[in-house]
Amino acid sequence: MSEIESVEHNVQQVRRFIDAWGAIDPDAAMACLSDDIEYINQPLPPVLGQKDVRQIVAGIMKLSKGVHWELRNCFGYGNTVVTERLDCWDFDGNGWGLKLPCIGMFDIDDDGKICGWRDYFDNQMWFDNGGPTLHLD
Amino acid sequence: MSADKDPNIARNEAVVRAFLKGWDDRDVDACMGQVTDDMCYLNQPLKAIRGKENVRTMIALIFEPARRVEFELIHVFGHGNKVITERLDQWDWSGSGTWELKLPVCGMFELTDDGKIYEWREYYDNEHWTKYGGPGLEL
Predict the structure, then answer these.
(1) What value, to the nearest 5°, has the Cα angle with vertex A37 and ends A31 and A41?
(2) Strand pairing class (A80-90; B49-50)
(3) What is the Rg, in whole angstroms, of the alpha carbon atoms belonging to chain B?
(4) pTM of the full predicted structure?
(5) Of B82, B86, B39, B85, whose CA–CA distance to B58 is shortest?
(6) % of chain A beyond a pLDDT of 90
(7) Residues of B numbered 92-121 whose beta carbons fall under 8 angstroms of chain A's beta carbons: which are they?
(8) What is the pLDDT of residues A78-90, one digit of tens each?
(9) How far is CA A89 from CA A63, A129, A132, B64, in A?
(10) What pairing do the DSSP bridges indicate for beta strands A114-120 and B35-43?
(11) Which residues, 6+ apart, have CB-to-CB distance to B39 below 8 Å?
(12) Which one of A68, A90, B67, B82 has the minimum C-beta count within 10 Å?
């Protein structure tokens, strides 16, 4: 696979992951991630591994009535993909109560799975507008 | 990495690196040499700062209390007219010789055809910035 093809594969995998959020489908989301996935909501501590990351992902999805991540930029280099997004959340069935500007950096492993996911955003904006916990208690 | 990288992208990455080096050196002139007159500086989720003079004022205000600054570059790569930077911005406010603030941040830059930065959008946790000594980021 050429470098360009490899980057395109990585971008497609990240887009699949983002589509899974739009579909509120935890199984589809988790299928995009490696067993040793490292998920960091900066500057919070990392969440490691399928089991723990699923708990966070499924927990957020369970509380969501609607999710739409508007993708403003998405491109890759090497094994990394950047997503610049406006994450729209409906937590109560009354429309997009939270529109969160966010950048997510994704690392893709040799098997084409996402093994690193680092989101950068304003935590206060998330928590003040209905966003649920982002760490395991 | 690639020898055949688009020359405009390579140039844009170099411009962004020069802009960020200006922060390490706390050299506002070096920073402003890389931007357009109508540049927009947006610290998500704060208000945008527009125009070179306003951005210069803001950056000078940030540099003023800092004794040492080092932006660790984790990723820098371009696509089209855009360059993404994933960074750990390290600040020593008091001259303690330690990094009193380590801020994980992503900055997205957009550049004109002639290689000047006209938009800069920063994504980070603002409370983490202010809690560890970062000054206000609105004029």
Answers:
(1) 110
(2) unpaired
(3) 15
(4) 0.96
(5) B39
(6) 90
(7) 103-106, 108, 121
(8) 999 999 999 999 9
(9) 10, 9, 11, 39
(10) unpaired
(11) B50, B51, B52, B55, B116, B117, B118, B119, B120
(12) B67
Q: Is the CB of residue A22 less than 8 Å from the CB of residue A5?
A: no
Here the tokens at position B5 are 């990288």
Residue B12 clears pLDDT 80, i.e. is over it:
yes
Burial class of residue A1 (count of CB atoms within 10 Å of its CB; 0-12, 13-18, 19+): exposed
Cα gap B3→A3, rounded to integer Å: 12
pLDDT at res. A135: 79
Which of B75, B91, B131, B138 to mutate to probe the A interface, most A CBs <10 Å?
A: B75
Q: Which residues of B touch A120 (CB under 8 A)?
A: 86, 104-106, 123-125
Instruction: Spell out the alpha helix ranges (H) of chain B.
Output: 7-24, 28-32, 52-63, 126-131
Q: Which residue has the tokens 């990288």?
A: B5
- In terms of residues, how long is chain B? 139
Closest alpha carbon within chain A to B84: A82
How many other C-beta atoms lie within 10 A of the C-beta of residue A132? 15
Cross-chain Cβ contact B45/A80 below 8 Å: no
- How remote is the C-alpha of B97 from its chain's centroid? 22
Q: Are A24 and A93 in contact (CB under 8 A)?
A: no
Say if B77 is an interface residue toward chain A (CB within 8 Å): yes
Asked whether the predicted pLDDT for residue A21 surpasses 90, the reply is yes
Question: What secondary structure does DSSP assign to chain A, as a single string?
Answer: --HHHHHHHHHHHHHHHHHHHHTT-HHHHHHTEEEEEEEEETTSPPEESHHHHHHHHHHHHHT-SEEEEEEEEEEEETTEEEEEEEEEEESSSSS--EEEEEEEEEEE-TTS-EEEEEEE--HHHHHHTT----S--
